[in-house]
Amino acid sequence: MAGSTFGNIFKMTTWGESHGEGLGVVIDGVPAGITVDTGFIQAMMDRRKPGNSKFSTPRSEADEIHILSGVFEDKTTGTPISMMVRNTSQRSKDYSEIASYYRPGHADYCFDEKYGFRDYRGGGRSSGRETLSRVAAGAVAKLFLKEQGININAYTRAIGPVSIDEAAFDQAEVFDNELCMPDKAAYEKAVEYLKECMANGDSAGGIIECVIDGVMPGLGEPVFDKLDAMLAHAIFSIGAVKGFEIGEGFNAASLQGSENNDEFCMKEGKVDKRTNHSGGILGGISDGSPIIFRAAVKPTPSISKMQRTVNKNGEEIEISVKGRHDPVIVPRAVVVVEAMAAMVIADAVLMNRCSKI
Amino acid sequence: MAGSTFGNIFKMTTWGESHGEGLGVVIDGVPAGITVDTGFIQAMMDRRKPGNSKFSTPRSEADEIHILSGVFEDKTTGTPISMMVRNTSQRSKDYSEIASYYRPGHADYCFDEKYGFRDYRGGGRSSGRETLSRVAAGAVAKLFLKEQGININAYTRAIGPVSIDEAAFDQAEVFDNELCMPDKAAYEKAVEYLKECMANGDSAGGIIECVIDGVMPGLGEPVFDKLDAMLAHAIFSIGAVKGFEIGEGFNAASLQGSENNDEFCMKEGKVDKRTNHSGGILGGISDGSPIIFRAAVKPTPSISKMQRTVNKNGEEIEISVKGRHDPVIVPRAVVVVEAMAAMVIADAVLMNRCSKI
Amino acid sequence: MAGSTFGNIFKMTTWGESHGEGLGVVIDGVPAGITVDTGFIQAMMDRRKPGNSKFSTPRSEADEIHILSGVFEDKTTGTPISMMVRNTSQRSKDYSEIASYYRPGHADYCFDEKYGFRDYRGGGRSSGRETLSRVAAGAVAKLFLKEQGININAYTRAIGPVSIDEAAFDQAEVFDNELCMPDKAAYEKAVEYLKECMANGDSAGGIIECVIDGVMPGLGEPVFDKLDAMLAHAIFSIGAVKGFEIGEGFNAASLQGSENNDEFCMKEGKVDKRTNHSGGILGGISDGSPIIFRAAVKPTPSISKMQRTVNKNGEEIEISVKGRHDPVIVPRAVVVVEAMAAMVIADAVLMNRCSKI
Amino acid sequence: MAGSTFGNIFKMTTWGESHGEGLGVVIDGVPAGITVDTGFIQAMMDRRKPGNSKFSTPRSEADEIHILSGVFEDKTTGTPISMMVRNTSQRSKDYSEIASYYRPGHADYCFDEKYGFRDYRGGGRSSGRETLSRVAAGAVAKLFLKEQGININAYTRAIGPVSIDEAAFDQAEVFDNELCMPDKAAYEKAVEYLKECMANGDSAGGIIECVIDGVMPGLGEPVFDKLDAMLAHAIFSIGAVKGFEIGEGFNAASLQGSENNDEFCMKEGKVDKRTNHSGGILGGISDGSPIIFRAAVKPTPSISKMQRTVNKNGEEIEISVKGRHDPVIVPRAVVVVEAMAAMVIADAVLMNRCSKI
Lengths: 357, 357, 357, 357
Known about the structure:
Four copies of one chain form a homotetramer.
Chain A: E1 5-6, E2 11-16, E3 22-28, H1 38-48, E4 66-67, E5 71-72, E6 75-76, E7 81-86, H2 108-115, H3 131-147, E8 151-159, E9 162-163, H4 171-176, H5 184-199, E10 206-213, H6 227-236, E11 241-246, H7 257-260, E12 264-267, E13 270-273, E14 281-282, E15 285-286, E16 291-297, E17 307-310, E18 316-319, H8 330-351
Antiparallel strand pairs in A: 1-2, 2-3, 3-7, 4-7, 5-6, 8-9, 8-10, 10-16, 11-16, 12-13, 14-15, 17-18
């Protein structure tokens, strides 16, 4: 109810603050018998962790994941899987100042209004660090989905105004360059753009795209838990996301029916679609085509550039947000998007086991 | 679980098919003591019902709402409110043909894959007619929110390529013109565009914008039930929605932090923001500014233009979708967007009653 | 949240008051493909309806069930099944007096405290009439379970101090006598007891026992949704229930481990138990033996005998509860117990589909 | 869904196995601002921990609780509270033998059937050790309830055939004697009984009674989440519980209405009841009187006495369960009952905040 649980059957509950003892997640509803590859989970964690590039915070945290329950002799047992990461690089003194005022673009004011006070150290529960719990859970979901033949790949589609050229799409680049952009030329332009932002004490946003292959038709529950509605919920629960679209997305609004409809056809004896404007979901249910969606990520709100704001005494002041912040969080959020998508699809696969007698 | 329930505390469960006995909704968790204005609920229903304009289906259904429980002496009692509409304009024979094939852009194929068969009459449960249950529930939510000083207004921002001019914004037009566009000139252009679509046996999409005024700061639950994530889920659960964005939305991706951050200031002794790029939500919690979001609606998939598809025997065929279909559903969806937004905000108001001791 | 929904996957939401338009239920999560025998559902309704005997209220209500959605060509479609019964025998004037005071043993005072006021006509939502929605839903659950080879039979084990003799158990009597007691001699003694109660303007309680055959081992979810915990919740949600026990129940408290443990053995090549002290559930999970539980039902609180109470002005008064009341509700509650048990088992069967990869 | 979460608003998710890294709990929905007394939480843990008496297992585990999140400057922050206990006294080799067979009265067989295999070390997830997570969460619930003026006290009412004499009730004894029996004479008789059980390699059960004082009228949600139904669910989810009753409980079945009804009266200007046969709950809603319920606990299934059973090869064998087992778990379960009751009441208090406008 208080919002720290996500999912219906395959379900995670996360906990932890940026500067507390650690952060973690409990996943309940994981079917028994999945082979747990700890190395794979840690590799997912490493894709998210800070310090991977000059465009992420120089905080270096090991973010080592510990599995505390639910796995026996390398298999999931069907009981809850508890995982946690200990915080090791806490510098709470960096944050003592921000206790007194509201950072623009942050939830400081909102938390104070909601709860009467807040754990101000590093954003507390509203820190982006919270997402590491999601990545750990999503990694388990991906292990389950792999056994079902489903793969999820996200990447950076745009950094600020710099977008990839679809014609130049190169999957290898996603892991090769620090911005996770599948187009080397775009990556290089984005690097220039980010350097400029940093020089100005400013920050950048971007767009993440995600493709899910191998999804059988039939996933998603009408009418409120449509597969795209679940994905929208999941992706919008990631801190900095301001937009979500699937298939043609906002572009569909200006198309005509004959342009946007995907005609059905037969392919190798099976029903298929000639196009995929739908992004793999029709009427909220997977249609067997790849699922394709995009998320808009706002620029990091923590900037060293001077900004006006107010403090808790109701005085207007000027501030420069100090501390070790990412000039752009998009590349680190790519794996979080994958993780959240994996949670939704894993849950939908299980829910669909009950659709027929 | 099977997706027909929405909300946590203020919670609706809908039922019904396009061509069954009727459709309805049960709302549980409505606080006792709300004055129920049946006329207001029916007026919301009337904004959604077909036959209001030359751009909606000529089916004329009364869509008269009946309150069956939960209201006593014009007040909500705290027990579930059951409401229903009887179907009166059923012409099942119109649909007998579509039992045999899969309409492009529709969920026919997906339902068959999910459930093994489907109620093919008028789309059954996947019909847009399902949304009338949402409107009835949303009307009750609006009655509750009004007593809290919260108002929700949605309107058509674009039809196909025709967008309103913000400088010419005229709220009165939303109720005055049949497209719900708050800009008369844009409305007239949109009319021309729609006539052309209809002449070609084609259809149009559009964009709906929604503004929520009077929201206190503090609504929304970190981390998964952020207020924007709940709205995204709600809006994306409406059949034809393909995109959702809040505040700057997708545009935020290309802004810099200093452009996108809203500086806090003091106004009449209270904390306020100089701008509202956030769209009224920061870190998933309402910040006291108006909430502003947009939804992209795809063009109606039912078109009379010839399309290729396959039938249940696996044969490729050509079809023209007959029947009484809307060339554009955007204007009728405006009130559905309002209803879903009202459900989310009402729920968030109640959930927030438990945030402090 | 507000308590009108029961179940996780196979899930019902009920609505309606004793003297409103009617009462009903929406069942979501019913798998597609179950053959719906309307006659069977009505027969379940008829077992609950008043007027079946001289020991139930002489109100004669048809309690005719109408299926409004979710069934197409006699099969469940996987979409929500809405069912309702119209109220036809309303005599609200009988109840106008009780608006002003609190009946002993009833929830009048509690409702006023909780909601600020109440629908006082016939108990409103707290009327036993509410259970007809459960019976309709439970009938659908039983249809599903029959196809899985699971049968549920409840009966009256005791009326007041009169218990059946297990040695004289006769299943046919459950349907043959109006008290649903599977022992004719006990039935006859109970009749005498009830006549005496009625002569004194008093009422009686009793014990209902329920046996569930054909349950496969493995149902129930550790640790909070143990199968017996779900049954306890379900049965205790029936208005007048004051106790619930499974297998040896309260008797187990005074046994020793060697007496209460069931030894495992092999029977026709399968694991079996030599005894069934457990009542078919071990560690919260079905063990393959028949599930046996008992519920204690309090005497009907509505009695014509004079009682002291207070009115809404805080004055102490004396009352005699008038109206058409059952001197004992146990026989009518038997089918409600079956229905609730069916809901739990159907839900557990579906949940268990996700226990293994 | 998979059963490791309990509660609606005030909600816990537990994890951990007897012989894994540790066990823990995440509580979500705790209102911000509760003062957290760690000493109180540890004291609750200590009441449950083994080694407190000659009648509990001689395993000595520190069961030291660690708070990992959700508390800042000694106050709850409104974000999830994660707590854990590390396992320190693991002797997995004690259990290697039981991997191969099914212990009578245990869930071994059921887990194998449900999940395909099991973590056999010390019962894994089905170990009574799981309840320490509940106690930690329940302690936080009790801290919240204390601030609301609500107190919860449980004690041993019976051990085997030895019951307390209500006339001799002495609350101090609950903490003074190792069996938590509020009657010294009964305690001494129970000691003799238990010594005899142990001498025979056998075990005992008992009855726990719980009294909740200070509950305001109005808690509990009709119709399925009645306060007693929630308590029944909670208490029945504790491993060895086989029966639950409230107020008169099973005795009510043989009373007449005039005996079982509680007459209302005025006391110091407030509505009160002359008796409390209801056990503090009417129609599922608290009536302002103390809530009184009882739970029947079966004898510990682990006994050293020889028993017949089967092994995984389907062979009938004879076994004597070795290891460090409690001859009676009732005294250690007393605090678990308190904890579960506290979770239910805390949740009901929060849910009730939404009952009126």
